[in-house]
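Q: For a teaching handout, I want to show students what a protein-ligand complex looks like in token form. Below are the inputs, and the small molecule is heme C. Please produce the holo structure.
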Amino acid sequence: MNAHLVAAVFMLVVSGIIWAATTANNPTWTGNKNVCVGECYETWKATHGGGIADIEQAKQQALAAASPAVLGEAYYGQCVACHGGRGEGGIGPPLQGQARVDIVAKLTAYRAGEKRGAQSAMMWPVAKPMTDNDIDNLAAYTAAW
Ligand code: HEC
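A: Here is the structure, written as tokens, with heme C included.
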């Protein structure tokens, strides 16, 4: 067998596989195509409380209307590693039991780059991007434990 023959046989086999696959194809199979349109989509909307855009809008509205403590809880996710899941402390001091105004004052100081304790440098980058609202929300959450 020379190289040309090997190549020819190879091409033939590959063509055969392609041919077999395409002729065995089920034309009614829709794969991952979204065929839920028209009536199907109307039904979906009715059972899901609106279309995809409506659901997203409702989600955003719920978020905007959420209480400061709920928003603070979401933000607190990035504090857990150092302050503990419920502010019991760890790498950072405990936050549990601290008054809301104190937390606001402390975070505002860190945001301004002020030195408080010996390890304030750990808090500066954390507090830097916080808005007044973020600080308020966080304090509302941590003061509620
Ligand atoms: C990398 C670890 C780390 C992360 C993450 C972190 N902190 Fe801290 N935090 C510290 C350390 C360390 C201190 C003590 C700093 C000092 O000596 O002034 C501190 C201090 C504080 C204080 C002052 C506590 C007191 O009584 O003096 C508050 C309030 C605080 N952090 C809130 C937060 C919040 C809210 C987050 C999340 C958005 C957060 N920290 C994320 C390490 C961290």
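A: Two things your students might notice: Residues 75, 78-79, 81-83, 91-93, 95, 103, 106-107, 116-120, 122-123, 126, 138 surround heme C (CB under 6 Å). The mean pLDDT is 91.
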